[in-house]
Amino acid sequence: MLAAIVGHESIATRSSALSGAAPADVAAAFPTPASDLALDAQLQAQATAETPAAPSLTDWKALTVESGQTLSTIFEAEGLPHSESLQLLTLSQDARQLRNLRPGEVIRLRRNAEGSLEELSYELDETHTLQVRRVDDQLEAFTIAAELEKRQAEVAGVIDSSLFAAAQKAGLSNRLTLELAQIFNYDIDFALDLRRGDRFVVVYDAYYKDGKKLRDGNITIAEFVNKGKVHQAMRYVDKKGNAAYYAPDGSSFRKAFIRTPVDFARISSGFNLARKHPILNVIRAHKGVDYAAGTGTPVKTTGDGTVEFLGKKSGYGNVIIIKHGQKYETLYGHLSRFRSGLRAGSKVKMGQVIGYVGATGLATAPHLHYEFRVNGLHVNPITVALPRANPLSKSEVAAWRAENAGALAALESISMQQSAMVQDFSGRNATP
Ligand SMILES: [Zn+2]
């Protein structure tokens, strides 16, 4: 009813604009195309005189960048002026990224009534979008930042054949499955220890943009029940931003040392307390391990510590001794040179390059002589049980639990349900 009235009124208005052309009633009842067009032109002219007309825009067009294409060839294919593609690149720092288009990326654009570029949009990365707009006939660029939404996600599974099969069935991505295996790698040998009925719960972050899942984040907390033994790991990020997994009591999953100080090296002489020395030709204990490697091969410190000695020492040649806390020391001998800037007192991080393989001191060929001392006693670096990295303090554990209460609660509730189901299942199996 309302629509009819509005319609009638609009016709009446139009008719009055056509004063004298035809009786109002006739025009209203039998509007002719010609009179309508004339009317529209007149109305439009009126509107234009009052406020500038909004230019009619085309729909957005999405162009997928093909191999070998540049912004300029895309503009050419679209019939847009070459000069504008060049101008675009100078609009802002972010707009310069249009210079390095990669195949598969998408450029969205739309034109105005004259057919020239009115707007362009290009995703710079997962949270930033470049927007180009024509304002007062000049192209302007803006960068729009989107917030990623972090949501908690949970996945649980029971091992039937392999971890990967169970994880896949549960919907855990390959990346997070690998991460899960790596977290518990120190306690569970996934090749030998895995049993049918072992189970896991993983609580992790998932990132969403505009309500759509973009990608998985990190595992916040995970549980793996292997042969009835419960293993749990929580992700802790320290003040410097280093992330590592710890047991719920704060003990570390990581070792305090890596086993080998050189990559791709061959052991040319093992730890032997009654070895005949190749140069001196007398029985002399070999209190370390020799790694044969080319001169200049990087040598890495096997643990965090402080350089205790750096310099020449008789048979060792150029040697570095590193102290790791009160109990442990490592030694690296026959080096061709030291890392520049390194000196006694320098702090070093596990895996950091400290020097380079050489044949200084008593050496027949380039190799690294590596020693591992516990409380001043030489031990075999190949077989020594490596200590765990420093644990978290009680207050750090408490802070983590407070901050991740939601993830903890989710893990505990899923784990309880899972445990009940597994027991129920095995119980039913036992009953004939
Ligand atoms: Zn040696």
Automatic annotation (TrEMBL):
Do you know which InterPro entries this protein is assigned to? Cell_wall_metabolism_enzyme, Csd3_N2, Dup_hybrid_motif, LysM_Opacity-associatedA, M23ase_b-sheet_dom
Example GO molecular function: metalloendopeptidase activity
Give UniProt keywords alphabetically. Answer: Hydrolase, Metal-binding, Metalloprotease, Protease, Zinc
Record-linked Gene3D superfamilies = 3.10.450.350, Glucose Permease (Domain IIA) (2.70.70.10)
- From the record, give the transmembrane residue ranges: none
Q: What is its main location?
A: other
Q: Which cofactor does it need?
A: Zn(2+)
| Biological-process GO terms, alphabetical | proteolysis
**Subcellular location(s) of the protein:** Cell envelope
Tell me where on the tree of life, at the top rank, the source sits.
Bacteria
Q: What Gene Ontology cellular-component terms does the record carry?
A: cell envelope
Csd3-like second N-terminal domain mapped to chain residues? 152-272
| M23ase beta-sheet core domain segment(s) | 285-381
Write down what this protein is called.
Peptidase M23
Species this protein is from:
Solimonas fluminis
